[in-house]
Write a structure and sequence with these properties.
Layout: H1 4-11, E1 13-15, E2 21-23, E3 30-33, E4 63-66, H2 73-81, H3 93-100, H4 105-111, H5 116-122, E5 130-132, H6 140-151, E6 164-166, H7 175-184, E7 190-192, H8 201-210, E8 216-218, E9 250-252, H9 261-270, E10 276-278, H10 287-296, E11 302-304, H11 313-319, E12 328-330, H12 339-348, E13 354-356, H13 365-374, E14 380-382, H14 391-400, E15 406-408, H15 417-426, E16 432-434, H16 442-451, E17 456-458
Parallel strand pairs: 5-6, 6-7, 7-8, 8-9, 9-10, 10-11, 11-12, 12-13, 13-14, 14-15, 15-16, 16-17
Antiparallel strand pairs: 1-2, 3-4
Helix pairs in contact: 6-7, 7-8, 9-10, 10-11, 11-12, 12-13, 13-14, 14-15, 15-16
Amino acid sequence: MCNVHDWDQRMGIMSLDSGTRTLSTPSPGLILPSKSSSLSSPALSSNGHETNSSSSSSAPGETVAVVHPQPGTHTRSRQLKSHHLAPIDLLPDHALLQIFSHLPTNQLCRCARVCRRWYNLAWDPRLWSTVRLTGELLHADRAIRVLTHRLCQDTPNVCLTLETVMVNGCKRLTDRGLHVVAQCCPELRRLEVAGCYNISNDAVFEVVSRCPNLEHLNLSGCSKVTCISLTQEASLQLSPLHGQQISIHYLDMTDCFSLEDEGLRTIASHCPRLTHLYLRRCTRLTDEALHHLALHCPSMKELSLSDCRLVGDFGLREVARLEGCLRYLSVAHCTRITDVGMRYVARYSPRLRYLNARGCEGLTDHGLSHLARSCPKLKSLDVGKCPLVSDSGLEQLAMYCQGLRRVSLRACESVTGRGLKALAANCCELQLLNVQDCEVSPEALRFVRRHCRRCIIEHTNPGFY
């Protein structure tokens, strides 16, 4: 009769820290949260769906990393003794692979534990181009290390098939986890670490310098990140080494509160291929930063500066230098922007499709008129909470921008039924109209409904239904 300690030694169980336990065997099979946290913190997902799993042996509130060996021959022998195969066992390998390709990461790891055939199929490299980790309690560093170790089994030290890593909302992710990604995933093309506030400039430097094919980077909520470059020395950050460039096209730095003009200047000089840039609530940025952005990133198509309250008309003049490329622009709540800045945008961005100027209280009908005349392809416009926009501006929009599909006039106090009727009569493709907190009559809303049958009207008028 063996005691519990002897039994644990035989099974290879080793406690790694107070929060996690690992079954110490050569190949990983599963990473899952504890039973007590399974309802609130999904473990791993490869297609964005949240999945719950549990472990009855874990303590409350902890996350468990379980590593399983390849199913042994004893499992196979039991199956051979069975006279009846399950219907799924009759499927050919290519059919099972197709099924497995739709499973989230944690369920794929579970399938690897069923039998030797499923183990080999579940770890087929074609199923591992994308890995998603979710959950606040997940030990993300350990999960990344376990998965990359297994995926490197056929190609030592590198995961040649892994192109997308998404670790959004994993608050326990640190620089150590991203260092593993940088070292093991040279073919990485997409990295998302939104909400992982422990990430710093060092980890980002490792990724962009070791993953030359990286095109999509989401750092939203990573408040410690202040720069993206190919050089670690501050004195060299403004000049890429030997003409080297970062191939990123898409960069989201929403809520990176520490980002300043000098940091954005460095980003622009190292990432000249940027086409999509989101800087929402980067409150330290000023007009000077946009000068360098326009200078180094001429191919910019989408730019969000929402809640960058230090950006004004001079900054929009710099943005307007992106002649002919800009399709999407958001300057919501940039209270320093007036008709002057809007005139620059209208003059130099004739292909603009989307404009969000919500809360720009200096915008009037004159700015709207310039926009309407110069940007006839405009599809979506938000001028909510712009008290100086009235029916005259809407009539100009209705005359020149007849392809409008989405318009928000929320809390525009000067807008009445006259402007709405002009909009509805000329913009028959209108799909969404927001007139909440506007003084418009039910009769005007009925007119919109008659002329724009597919339009969803968001309103606060109790007399219209």
